[in-house]
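Work Package 4 report. The design task specified in the project plan requires that, given a folded chain encoded as structure tokens, an amino acid be chosen for each position. We show below one input record used in the internal validation round.
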């Protein structure tokens, strides 16, 4: 397998990010987890994965990332570079996709528990026919590994799933998925427009618990004009990222174990 380029989304929520302020750092990606900045933990996992080649950190100011010694060493060794973050995650991925091309592995700087074996499992499970693939974990796997966590779950007829902050954009057609993501991001506070975008029948079946994951992927593929797939992760902790103080506390607890 040709090593894949990995994109790490490390954009900030802007000045005064409550997570960064609470941690006493100037940027969310610098929040320490187990005494190590989250961004460093993510880059370490990627560097330790043989299937990953170039690593690109998407951040507002490259000096923030390169001010971390491990990140600077990876850059000096030719393994890592930085590009500018855009106004939102979807815009950042769109810009990175145009600049870096495909295939592209995407993760986030707040995926502080990320491990090489998770990345390898995800890449090994990719479908050769899919344009875009997301990692997901079943609720049962998540709560077996982390009983007290609170995750955002999508409830389908065949199970409840949470995303795991790992995505693979295999072909240029994946740009259609990113464009749809941007539309959803733009319309998320306009319920009627969201209904028109996704379709009332689709949303009704989802609300009634009659929509399967496969049917949801089919609908997403139709709207984005892509072939979409998921890789189910058996690692429950892979669904844990750091969005709020309780998440950071949980990550600290898991790292102490």
């Amino acid at each position: 397998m040709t090593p894949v380029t990995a994109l790490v989304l490390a954009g900030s929520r802007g000045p005064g990010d409550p997570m960064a302020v609470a941690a006493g750092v100037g940027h969310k990606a610098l929040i320490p987890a187990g005494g190590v900045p989250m961004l460093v933990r993510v880059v370490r996992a990627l560097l330790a994965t043989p299937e990953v080649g170039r690593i690109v950190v998407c951040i507002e100011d490259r000096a923030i990332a390169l001010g971390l010694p491990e990140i600077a060493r990876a850059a000096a060794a030719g393994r890592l570079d930085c590009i500018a973050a855009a106004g939102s995650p979807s815009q950042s991925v769109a810009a990175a996709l145009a600049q870096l091309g495909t295939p592209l592995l995407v993760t986030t700087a707040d995926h502080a528990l990320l491990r090489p074996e998770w990345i390898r499992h995800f890449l090994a499970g990719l479908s050769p026919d899919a344009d875009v693939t997301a990692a997901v974990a079943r609720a049962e796997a998540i709560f077996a590994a982390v009983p007290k966590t609170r995750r955002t779950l999508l409830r389908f007829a065949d199970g409840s799933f949470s995303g795991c902050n790992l995505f693979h954009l295999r072909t240029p057609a994946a740009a259609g998925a990113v464009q749809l993501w941007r539309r959803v991001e733009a319309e998320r506070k306009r319920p009627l427009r969201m209904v028109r975008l996704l379709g009332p029948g689709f949303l009704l079946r989802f609300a009634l618990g009659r929509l399967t994951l496969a049917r949801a992927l089919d609908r997403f593929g139709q709207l984005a004009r892509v072939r979409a797939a998921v890789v189910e992760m058996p690692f429950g902790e892979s669904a844990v990222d750091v969005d709020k103080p309780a998440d950071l506390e949980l990550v600290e607890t898991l790292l102490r174990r």
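The two ends are 34 Å apart (CA to CA). Validation will be extended to a larger panel in the next phase.
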